[in-house]
């Protein structure tokens, strides 16, 4: 993480992420009164008891990065008997932040009771060698377990987002998810595990696409084919679409900002990409004669209306 252009001398006492523990500050001769003055002067921000961050670093970070800062500070304060888990493990392993509660860092203790204090939610859980990974100098629960933990604390849809992300990036597999779920069948609030296992699909590439697929499931629509290939008459692939119902001759594409960044070509403006995407959609309609429906973030907040729109397209006569 880059330091601010104008550095306060206290920056020399902070680590590479702009973090400073009270215990380290005391050893370096910076007492509690000095720390309080630095907070009052808007040089430091107090993350939690005994840990601080450069205010410039904290204000430049988004919500997910602020949670990672909190996690790094917490893990410097704790010993080897805990692991970052749940949403905290997912974020530290570069999972998306959709639907996650980020106010507190999540720790799983290898012994002891779950509780909540000073921006930490403590969990008790049995962990074996297959449950843990070592990163950044501390323990985290592995992606497959973290997905199931999120299902218990944040809900099925956020857990599915994590599952598809880690499957798509190759950080876990369906077999690993199933194995961890078998060992977690008696966890509190684990009822969402079976839905995550049912829907998880490495072909689904983004948060928006995962949320679309979850909408299809919860509104009773038939399961679509993700990443369906539309082909030219000679058999070569003309385009891949997010979802298709070949029997109903309906395609759904999700338009999210992430897609524009992911598929934007070097040197291409957003306007140029939109025009290229329009030509792509025209080609898809020309080759298939199918109905193409585009969904945006606001459509996901109105699931029944969005599902009704797709059902109408499925009942409409084909023009092919």
UniProtKB/TrEMBL annotation:
InterPro entries: Restrct_endonuc-II-like (IPR011335). It comes from the Bacteria. This is Transcriptional regulator, AbiEi antitoxin, Type IV TA system.
